[in-house]
Amino acid sequence: MGNLTPFDGITNARDLGGLSTLGGLRTLSSVLFRSGALDRMSERDRHRLVNEMRVGTVVDIRTREESDGDGLQDQRLLPEVRCVHVSVVPEGRIGREPFPDGRDPIALAEGYFVNLVEGAEALAEIIGIIAGAVSVGESVLFHCAAGRDRTGLVAALLLGLVEVTDEHIISDYIASNSHALTIAERLRANPLYVAQSADGIKPVMLRNLTMIHFLGLVGDRFGGVDGWASRVGVSDEAVSGLRRSLVPGQATQSP
């Protein structure tokens, strides 16, 4: 997993390269990035994203309400980049409905699974957008607010589809722990997120058990991430494109 040099105003950012697959290969670096929101990025951060990392597509998976009310916050911040907005959760839910914060790892896993089922159409669209972009050689950054939960869900799906091992899916997931303090500070500064927590937003450490249980639920219900993707309409072409772009050689190895 490629830890990125810290940004000035973007938290919890990392490269999804260097992760081991079941076939003994590794995901390529500089293809797929994940992070928290971009609204505090500096001019130096912008230059780095566009000119050094060469991000061609940004996918914002927050609600419209979180993204300036219209889902276009990123496009205004990065007019030279293709920015796409697709919310994983229904509008109006953030800040109004409680969501497990990780202190109960099983409840958090079950919350992710609810997002997976209820947000199936949006998640399939997100995967299709990302697959299409990387298939034509673009680097992609996807993010939510903290870059932890919704982003962690999308990352787990993408990595599962390219056959990254469960061990490395889990290691990527809990890498957000190194940003726990900053994440809590950022969320506390926004009344929308504070309203969602009855006892205040505190730093919470993610647990391996959460992702283990989530992947187990996906396996039990759908037969794995591939089975889920097939059920919700993610095309074979999208999956093949992800594999060709993130793990060259895998498409010819896979049955």
TrEMBL record:
It holds the Pfam family Y_phosphatase3. Transmembrane segments: none annotated. Residues 121-159 form the Tyrosine specific protein phosphatases domain. PROSITE patterns: TYR_PHOSPHATASE_1, TYR_PHOSPHATASE_2. GO terms for molecular function: phosphoprotein phosphatase activity. InterPro entries: Prot-tyrosine_phosphatase-like, Tyr/Ser_Pase_IphP-type, Tyr_Pase_AS, Tyr_Pase_dom. This is Protein tyrosine/serine phosphatase. It comes from Parafrankia irregularis.
